[in-house]
Specification:
mainly beta, seven-stranded mixed sheet, four-stranded antiparallel sheet, 1 helix, 3% helix, 48% strand
Length: 129
């Protein structure tokens, strides 16, 4: 059983930074991709960022490009999301997800909710104005 556990969320002011972590454990799957998604109240879950586990190719939603950075530590089985210059519209529950299958269309599939096989429980990020 694979488990993903997010941490690092909290309440911050606009312009502040936060760093989210997602540690995964369980069966030693070789994940092809790890992603971060978020869901605000009353809205659908949306893509934030993703990284290919082996090569390290990164993908970002336009709304966070230049402000957020995704990275991974293969030895620690952990993926991170560094969030800078936070805005009130970044307020959401942030979810980590893992995909155990290869992705051949780059951004098109890495940004898709449906391709991910495992999800964490989410961590709340609240940005006040």
């Amino acid at each position: 059983q694979v488990q993903l556990v997010e941490s690092g969320g909290g309440l911050v002011q606009a312009g502040d930074s936060l760093k989210l972590s997602c540690a995964f454990s369980g069966r030693a799957f070789n994940f092809y991709g790890l992603g971060w998604f978020r869901q605000a109240p009353g809205k659908e879950r949306e893509f934030v960022a993703a990284i290919s586990w082996s090569v390290g190719t990164t993908y970002y939603a336009d709304s966070v490009k230049g402000r957020f950075t995704i990275s991974r530590d293969n030895a620690r089985n952990t993926v991170y999301l560094q969030m800078n210059s936070l805005k009130p519209e970044d307020t959401a529950v942030y979810y980590c997800a893992a995909d155990r299958d290869p992705c051949f269309s780059g951004y098109g599939c890495r940004a898709s909710v449906v391709v991910y096989d495992y999800w964490g429980q989410g961590t709340q990020v609240t940005v006040s104005s």
